[in-house]
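Hey, quick one: can you model this chain's 3D structure?
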Amino acid sequence: MATVDTLSSTLAALADPTRRAILARLRAGDASVGDLAKPFAMSLPAVSKHLKVLERAGLLTRSRAAQWRPCALRPEGLRAVADWIEDYRALWEARLDRMQAYVEELARREGAAAPAAKASRTRTRRKP
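Sure thing. Here's the predicted structure for all 128 residues.
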């Protein structure tokens, strides 16, 4: 059940475009709250709330280095989402492979049946 809760909290955190932008910025390296807030037209407390959501979802960590309080990306926090998506990707690839095989089999059968059908039409047209 913990996986579902982790998955739900991670997906909820990723649902917001501001939080996705924050994660994208953190891919370049650690940043302070002030640095993360610069591109947004919102207050530092509002950005801090977004950071708390990301932190609870396990997508970032906040630490303290003297006066600097950097935020760092935790890519392993996306593992639950990646695993869940991978399960569905595998399912759909298998289904699409079966459908492709079926379509190819139908085409093969129609290809084999077409000359026989043409021959039978040719024979029925001839009258002695």
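One thing worth noting: The chain has a mean pLDDT of 87.
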